[in-house]
Design a protein that fits this description.
By secondary structure, the protein is of the alpha+beta class. It contains four helices and eight strands, in the order ααββββββββαα. The protein is globular, with a radius of gyration of 16 Å.
Length: about 150
């Protein structure tokens, strides 16, 4: 399966115009990470946006795991908002394969093709909200378990 085909299978990229999908495919590359690899580090620049093809990636803040991502999910939303730095640590739990998109090229493509930018931003809202809600619930659970509220 090509990078373009892998992207088109994801809800984030599905049903984009063929030319848009092809453009994204040209800036994409497959990446393999061994278990225990740090993909993103809190407070460091986010250079790649990842679609997870296989494996698991743990998201944590200051050592507290807030979510584990699986195949089909995306990693690295901070590329959308300046200063383009990660708010979480992302560490592979298992060997993981992704299709990675260069963030600088992706932002440039969205600036040049506003229809592409609009489509991606609309599709990004739901997974970002789900990630935020997951973090919120995890923090509430930690405070509840500790007996403080």
């Amino acid at each position: 399966m090509s990078e373009t085909e892998a992207l088109s299978a994801s809800p984030l990229f599905a049903n984009l115009e063929p030319a848009q999908l092809e453009r994204l495919g040209l800036m994409a590359e497959r990446r393999c990470f061994l278990a225990g690899t740090v993909i993103l580090k809190q407070h460091t620049p986010v250079e790649d946006f990842h679609l997870i093809l296989s494996g698991q990636v743990s998201l944590s803040v200051d050592g507290l795991t807030v979510q584990t991502l699986q195949s089909g999910e995306v990693l690295g939303w901070s590329w959308l908002i300046p200063p383009y730095e990660s708010h979480l640590d992302a560490i592979t739990v298992t060997d993981t394969e992704t299709v990675s998109l260069d963030c600088v090229a992706l932002r440039a493509a969205m600036d040049e093709d506003h229809d592409l930018g609009y489509a991606l931003l609309r599709r990004a809202i739901r997974p970002m909200l789900e990630r935020l809600q997951s973090c919120r619930l995890q923090v509430l659970d930690v405070y509840h378990q500790g007996g403080t509220r």
